[in-house]
Amino acid sequence: MTIQIGDRIPAASLHVLKDGVQAITTGEIFGGRKVVLFSVPGAFTPTCSARHLPGYVERFAEFRKRGIDVACIAVNDAYVMDAWAKTQNVPDGMMMLADGNGAFAQSLGLEMDASKFGMGVRGKRFALYAEDGVVRKLNVEAPGEFKVSDAQTMLEATA
User: Fold this and answer.
1) Is 78 exposed, middle or buried (0-12, 13-18, 19+ CB in 10 A)?
2) Which of 4, 14, 12, 38 is nearest to 134 (CA)?
3) Judging by beta carbons within 10 Å of its beta carbon (0-12, 13-18, 19+), is residue 33 exposed, middle or buried?
4) Per the count of CB atoms within 10 A, which of 4, 68, 100, 147 is most buried?
């Protein structure tokens, strides 16, 4: 079942590259914080690299002024997420989360099968806003679209 507004973010372990690959829990990411989490189907893919992540990079300071943390997640490993962050000039403080085997995407009910593109199971393109681990806003893109999970839409949703 897909996570809904009012639901708590499920307990999970994700990964970041910081002095080696480090596990980080959803409790650490969301507990006591306001967080926008946006999901991309894959690092280095066209829409993700040309539009989705760059929008959040450009608007990162605006989120932070509102006391909102920003996290990007993809079904990739921590090394790929770190390399992508470097090529995209991701600012310090924006979390680049690896959901290596897609378990977190599946726990949200937001996985998709991209096998016909040679990508296996991935996370859908979406953005959510959570306060202390409770989903307050959830925007899930229709397949092939990029209309509701962008940074500007999420800034408006959290105003």
Assistant:
1) buried
2) 4
3) middle
4) 68
pTM beyond cutoff 0.85: yes
- pLDDT 10s digits, 2-54: 999 999 999 999 999 999 999 999 999 999 999 999 999 999 988 999 999 99
CATH of 13-157, one of 3.40.50.720, 2.60.120.20, 3.90.360.10, 3.40.30.10: 3.40.30.10
Q: Is residue 72 annotated as part of the catalytic site, yes or no?
A: no
54-70 burial: b if 16+ Cβ within 10 Å, else e: bbbbebbeebeeeebbb
Residue bearing tokens 């990411």: 29
CB-count exposure of residue 144 (10 Å: 0-12, 13-18, 19+): exposed
Q: Which of 24, 35, 48, 95 is catalytic?
A: 48
Domain boundaries, the chain: 13-157
Residue type, 71: A
Question: How far apart, in whole angstroms, are the C-alpha atoms of residue 65 and residue 87?
Answer: 25
